[in-house]
Amino acid sequence: MQWETVIGLEIHTQLATRSKIFSGASTAYGAAPNTQACAVDLGLPGVLPVLNGEVVNMAIKFGLAINAEVAPLSVFARKNYFYPDLPKGYQISQYELPIVGKGEVTIELDDGSSKVIGVTRAHLEEDAGKSLHEDFHGMTGIDLNRAGTPLLEIVSEPDMCSAQEAVAYMKKIHSLVRYLEISDGNMQEGSFRCDANVSVRPKGQQKLGTRTELKNINSFRFVERAIEFEVERQIDLLEDGGKVVQETRLYDPAKGETRSMRSKEEAMDYRYFPDPDLLPVEITTEHIERIRATLPELPDAKRTRFVSAYGLSDDDAGFLTASRDVAAYYEQVVAEAGDARLAANWVRGELAGYLNRENTEINDSPVSAAMLAGLIKRIQDNTISGKIAKDVFEGMWQGEGDADAIIESKGLRQITDSGALEALVDEVIANNPEQVEQFRAGKDKVLGFFVGQIMKATHGKANPGQINALLRKKLSD
Amino acid sequence: MSLDKTDVNKIAHLARLDIAAPDIDVYASNLSSILDLVAQMNSVDTDAVTPMAHPTDAVQRLREDKVTAVDQREKFQAIAPQVDAGLYLVPKVIE
Question: What angle in degrees, to the nearest 10, is found between the helix axes of A446-457 and A464-475?
Fold first, then answer.
């Protein structure tokens, strides 16, 4: 039977505020346990939550960026459950009236096509603390520094039909929250994590199959693997005449599999109700317009502009605009070096390769945009060839100075003295009569052999275009 | 609406309340009366009324995003049953 996969994602993104959503405790990552957990975060008797205004502004930004309606009135609700890292016995969240309503984002797929994915809603809530299950005299240790950290939960429609689409969607939301500067998106630190709702159904069937929820996936790679594993598990189950049980499953990255956490029968009954400690949040049109005026150019608009302004392919433009930092770096290189295509090739090729290998963020790159622009200028004015430029780039990456300094100190300047080159060409032709015959007999490919010989003799410092021209001229004499 | 023993036990479990078996019938009858009152209120036609999230006619005041809390871990942990290495210790929970 042909099967069809249906996926919806719930993404939790930590908002990059200084203080918590309902208290004045710091949200800085990595502090000593419980040194950033105040009386409100601990849920001590008599405390009251007071909403952080910046959290509201950030949610509005996100709503505007996905073309959603920002609710003029939204309400906080209590989600009740017992767990030691949730001191109050309830999480303050939003239920019936979330701050951001229906919106959408467009994802680009590997085959070049694009697809619109619906966002059902996005709501504000507080994060819980952390439970440490290492052995503390047979007990569990609780660190409440994270308790009360603001989260925006972004819920998608079940619009995705493959693990690849789910990853593309997750990357798009990640790119958006970073563009908007509402989250650092740091997945290792848990600032951006996702749950996936996955089901399968026979191709063509309207009714959705029974879904399972995969919990707490914190990398793009794991999302893809967890979903692929789960889809296969469900299909195997159904083809063997079994049934999918509606349940929560945990992805185990070490084993590459999902396993059952709790079934629907044991499912939580959260008994949501409006939090009497918090009043409804009113957002005026003026407030929304004030925030709209601060929105940066968003990835889709930037991508379109890169194609039209710089003559890039859509694929290159997509790569260069996925991150705001990469886009800014690229634009600085172009502004200084001029050649937009060449700049794109270097940022996407050599630079991206080094950043990837050395696991470095572009803002920490030892080769700054100005340095890369300096290198590109030397390629443009024929001081060095593209091939030598790669050696110069490596030198810059290793901290040996800028392009001009490295070209000088290593004597990498291209030989453009046509007299010297001509002598070399003559010599190579004289030494290889056999290949000369072949060339003259019409075997054009032999030209490459001659170019190689000359490059070898000059340690790559000859200008390939110039050699080609010289060789053709001499060989046809 | 009337609640039976099973409902009462489930509600008690959700609220982590340990209620004595002989009291269950009383709880069932009291809680049922409360629900009856709610049912009575539910029968009023409220189609033209906007649902209210809070009884006061006011909106939420917003706080400036500033760190104002200072570290008082020692004070808080002085009243905790058990602590170690800055962590609050609780009976082992495994999910």
Answer: 120
Maximum alpha-carbon separation in chain A: 98
What is the pTM assigned to this prediction?
A: 0.84
pLDDT tens digits, one per residue of A32-75: 999 999 999 999 999 999 999 999 999 999 999 999 999 999 99
Domains of chain A and CATH, by start: 3-289 (no CATH), 299-410 (no CATH), 418-476 (1.10.10.410)
Query: From CA B75, how far away is CA B56, in angstroms rounded?
Result: 35
A75 inside 8 A of chain B by CB: yes
pLDDT of residue A434: 85
- Closest partner residue to A75 (CB to CB) among B53, B61, B76 is B53
Nearest to A17 among B14, B65, B91 (CB): B65
Q: What is the pLDDT of residues A147-163, one digit of tens each?
A: 999 999 999 999 999 99
Q: Give the residues across from A273 on adjacent strands.
A: A78
Indicate whether B13 belongs to any domain: yes
Determine the pLDDT at residue A178: 95
Domains of chain B: total: 1
> Residue A32: its chain B contacts at CB < 8 A?
86
Among residues 13-42 of chain A, which lie with CB inside 8 Å of chain B?
17-19, 23-26, 32-40, 42
Nearest CA in chain A to B55: A276
Instruction: Establish, for the pair of chains A and B, how many residue pairs have beta carbons separated by less than 8 Å.
Output: 127
pLDDT band of residue A97 (cuts 50, 70, 90) is: very high
CB nearest A143 (choices: B61, B87, B94): B87
Per-residue pLDDT of A262-290, as tens digits, reads 766 566 789 999 999 999 999 999 999 99
DSSP-derived secondary structure for A155-215: EE-S-B-SHHHHHHHHHHHHHHHHHTTS----TTTTSEEEEEEEEEEETT--SPPP-EEEE
Q: Show the domain range for B35.
A: 5-42
Contacts of A17 in chain B (CB under 8 A): 65
- Say if B80 falls within a structural domain: no
Q: Is residue B10 part of a domain?
A: yes
- Residue B29 in domain: yes
User: Which of B14, B65, B71 lies at the smallest CB-CB distance from A53?
Assistant: B65
